[in-house]
Amino acid sequence: MDTNEIEVQGEQSGGEAAVLVGGLTEHQQISKARKREFGKRVRLLREAKRWTQEELAADSGLSRSYVSRLELGDIALPRNDKLTRLARALGTSNEDLLEAAGYMTPPSNDQEGSLPDLAPYLRRKYGLSQPRLVDLIQYMVEMAQREGSGTPPASNESADEAAELAAAEDNR
Fold it and tell me: pTM score, two decimals?
């Protein structure tokens, strides 16, 4: 047994002794890992917007210390109202944040209307998690939808921004 593992006296419901790693049960380890993954996703999206924690806090109505603790994985999953404000400020969906951390299982594709938002889909299907690249793809999808409906684009600003994003991704 590893020196970080501790066998717990007694048996669990399955008849096996519980093994703690680093003093944490398997459930606690998974929970801790999910909080860290959630925090990483929040940080990645915040940094993609080139925001400080203070700016995210101001835009979401949360405190800077709360944002910091979320990013570090120090606190549990936010309540639904806080999660919604956080997702809105970061320009994503609640589902994107929850799926990234493993809190939510993606819906099966055999159900009508079960398709996820674009960001979670690109992450699951293609492993794309860079927010700027996802924004570029989202822009291209919107342009294709407008083309199909005959609606002209609102302005060329978005096209210029998308081109800048593509160039920045190429330079990485």
Answer: 0.53
